[in-house]
Amino acid sequence: NKADPVSVRLGAKNPPCEGAVEIKS
Prior knowledge:
Number of domains: 1
Radius of gyration: 7 Å
Oligomer: single chain
Number of strands: 0
Number of helices: 2
Shape: elongated
Organism: Xenopus laevis (African clawed frog)
Distance between the termini: 14 Å
Structural class: mainly alpha
Protein name: T cell antigen 2B1
Low-confidence stretches: none
């Protein structure tokens, strides 16, 4: 799980990734 700013941006546009879900949710 990557908690990088890039992953967060990708998670907002692309399907939620493992790391993006933890930050976003």
